[in-house]
Design a protein that fits this description.
Length: 392
């Protein structure tokens, strides 16, 4: 059976949005982030950018498109990033602004030289991010043979396990089946599989976003994932999320929604679930991250000024220690903003999700696409939108 993954409208709109995007101007080809005193260290290095983002891209992502980087520049950036680490490291994540295993982003020779640097670096575990469709037996074998003696994990963007949401809300450019195939290959080689899962995907109302994240964790764990990383979404410029936010169709998820997802998950699944980006990490980079305002975070998940500090402290505690009692503490915490959030998630939308998506698609088409676009392609898209919809 062939599965449909393309979304001509979102792809074209994303290209229009990205056409206006300035090249990423940053002062360093690498950035380090040291968390939990070295328990987790990540190095991000500059490349020409995610190939899917260059062709069209996911609706929430502005991973930034840098200038083309050659093998020498990439390897030097990683070398400098490793040299700037001054703590004992448990888990080391070294990733480009996209996929480590995409040869257009990281040339194969650069990748092999990065593996040599990692092999000689004293960390227990090595991880990187890559799109599921870049995983093959050959590349997995290569990393295993290049870095003996370290635990390996590969982190991939699932965002949602719902193929309809991937296609019509995220424009993921892949299908959950591709994720499953990649997870099977990795598991067969003993590589740990991490799945990035979003909370607050475009077009979903707060309750749908919570349900989607919970279902995605359940799906991921039963499809070979070892660890789910929950990401409440931030609004970044030059994304569809930003346009939706500017036009009153989107608001970043409340941190109470993140708490709710944790609360709803079975304790057995929680042991394989971690949280990330509930804070804006851009503020803690080494060297200090100075990006053009255009590439900055516009709006972030939060609660309210009265309780925010306490909520973040407790989330840190959960993140660092994985103590499940913290979820109870967060669940029983009282604040006026929590009452407002509860009311919001209790509201029932007057229109179904496909109806709401269709309405916004029509606005997007009239604003971004040629006048006759909808008359040519609109009815097919509308049919698919309704006929393939499934909330599961
Ligand atoms: S979320 Fe990942 S796959 Fe999607 S555009 Fe961004 S970097 Fe590329
Ligand atoms: Zn509050």
């Amino acid at each position: 059976m062939t599965v449909q993954i393309d979304n001509p409208l979102l792809s074209e709109v994303m290209r229009c949005i990205h056409r206006m995007r300035p090249k990423l101007h940053i002062t360093s080809p690498f950035y380090d982030r040291i968390e939990k005193n070295g328990n987790f260290v990540s190095i991000w290095f500059l490349t020409s950018g995610c190939q899917w983002n260059i062709r069209s891209g996911c609706t929430m992502c502005n991973y930034g498109q840098g200038s083309v980087c050659n093998e020498e520049e990439i390897v030097n950036a990683v070398h400098k990033g490793l040299s700037a680490i001054n703590v004992k490291v448990k888990r080391l994540l070294v990733s480009p602004s996209g996929s480590m295993l995409d040869p257009q982003e990281v040339p194969p020779n650069a990748r092999r030289r990065i593996y040599s640097l990692i092999r000689d670096f004293p960390s227990l575990e090595f991880a990187f991010e890559t799109r599921p469709e870049t995983i093959t037996n050959e590349v997995v074998k290569e990393v295993i043979e290049s870095i003996p003696g370290k635990r390996l994990s590969i982190q991939m963007g699932l965002e949602s396990s719902n193929a309809w949401i991937q296609r019509f809300c995220i424009n993921k450019g892949s299908h959950p089946n591709q994720f499953t195939n990649a997870a099977q290959i990795l598991t067969a080689y003993g590589v740990k599989v991490y799945a990035n899962i979003s909370i607050g995907t475009a077009f979903l109302n707060p309750q749908e976003a919570i349900n989607d994240a919970v279902r995605s964790v359940q799906w991921a764990i039963s499809n070979g994932v070892d660890v789910c990383m929950l990401f409440p979404l931030h609004v970044k410029s030059y994304t569809l999320l930003f346009w939706l936010y500017q036009n009153g169709f989107y608001h970043p998820p409340s941190l109470w929604s993140l708490v709710e997802v944790l609360r709803l998950l079975d304790p057995k699944l929680l042991s394989g679930t971690k949280i990330a980006w509930y804070r804006n990490y851009y503020e803690n980079m080494i060297p200090k991250l100075e990006i053009n305002e255009d590439s900055d975070v516009i709006a972030s998940p939060t609660t309210c000024p009265k309780c925010q500090e306490r909520v973040l402290e407790l989330l840190d505690e959960y993140c660092y220690r994985g103590d499940l009692r913290v979820i109870d503490d967060l669940d029983t915490m009282q604040c006026e903003c929590k009452d407002v959030w509860k009311q919001k998630i209790g509201e029932v939308s007057m229109y179904s999700l496909p109806e709401r998506v269709l309405r916004i698609y029509k606005e997007l088409a009239s604003l971004f696409l040629p006048d006759d676009w909808w008359s040519h392609y609109g009815s097919v898209l509308e049919e698919e939108l309704f006929n393939t919809y499934s909330a599961e």
